[in-house]
Amino acid sequence: MTHGGRVGRTARPAVRTLFHDDFRDGLDTAARWRLRPRGGLEHGDGIVRCSSEGLTVTPTGTDPATGRPAFAVTYGQGAPEGGWNDHMKWVALTRHAADGGAPGFDVPATGALTCTVTLSGERHGVERHPFGAAVADPRADPRLGMVSMVMVDLEAHLVFGFALTDSVVYALYERPPAPGRRYASFGYAVPVADRTADRWHACRIRVDEGGGRVSWVLDGRTVLTTDRLGLRAFGRADMLLDHGGAEERVRLRRLACGLGLFTLLDGAGPDGGGLVRLDAAPDFYLAPRDPGSRPQSFVDERSLPENRIWGAGAVLRARAVDIVESPH
């Protein structure tokens, strides 16, 4: 169009910041964040501290041998919630409700929805694990403890994120089990970069193609991408959990962003075996390295308490969380 003798230009769609938190004013659990109760602790197994440097979360327990922070909450095979809930120690998800009232931010029909977390962390006591040769490298093994950021579609039960150990960054891709559902349930931890415990990372999950594709972007570099959402999308060498079920493609609709401290003691290691059978439900675990239906085996088939809590812990640090909608 013309106006006043000048040729006008069509304005480019703007980048929209939907959410920003640098934690300088604390962790606002009334309006911005929802914490998951764990093991009788209303705010989960984490002590929150905020300052001008950002957010720090440490476990509520203490390792009596070292005085360092240690996980205190655990779930056994008889837990009403299911023993596999032992994975989650401390979890915070954004409270925002999308247009339909469901939690999360709507995925745009065009462009991208991204969650970026400036994240760091370290773990303590993992080297004193009780699993012997089943853990080849405690500093790298994510099953013993993870500092994580996630992006979650709570309706589709799909999780995408990054997990930090002391020496490796993993891309997470999970579809946890849900009562009454028989979709394919699995968990992947794909190693994407080396790290040191004092290093900070820009961890970004990007959803585009109208909710049909997800990319994992670490420190400005795309390290993993898939459009096979809901399917066992990556190699079985990086699959930690397989609960069986029928594969079905999923299109993401709305996503929340979150932070968390996790363990994954029932996950498979490089040798294919799990550490602890957290859940005793029949046929709950299949061997992730086997494309058939062979049952999974574990070092500890009974989920003894001393094999779930032994003085290990992790400390999460986050400088900022940003959720952005962009035109491309």
Spatial shape? globular
Alpha carbon gyration radius: 20 Å
H-E order: EEEEEEEEEEEEEEEEEEEEEEE
In CATH, the architecture is Sandwich
Description:
- The chain is mainly beta and 328 residues long.
- The N terminus is likely disordered.
- The strands form five sheets. Strands 4, 9, 10, 12, 13, 14, 15, 19 and 20 form a nine-stranded antiparallel beta sheet that branches.
- 0% of the residues lie in helices and 41% in strands.
- It has one domain: Sandwich (Jelly Rolls).
Summarize the structure.
The chain is 0% helix and 41% strand.
Provide tags for this entry.
41% strand, disordered N terminus, 8-stranded antiparallel beta sheet, 328 residues, mainly beta, Jelly Rolls, 9-stranded antiparallel beta sheet, single chain
Q: Layout of SSEs?
A:
Layout: E1 2-3, E2 6-7, E3 16-21, E4 33-35, E5 47-51, E6 54-58, E7 61-62, E8 69-70, E9 88-94, E10 105-106, E11 112-124, E12 146-153, E13 158-164, E14 168-175, E15 186-194, E16 201-208, E17 213-218, E18 221-226, E19 239-242, E20 254-262, E21 274-276, E22 298-300, E23 313-326
Parallel strand pairs: 21-22
Antiparallel strand pairs: 1-2, 3-23, 4-9, 5-6, 6-23, 7-8, 9-20, 10-20, 11-16, 11-23, 12-13, 12-20, 13-14, 14-15, 15-19, 16-17, 17-18
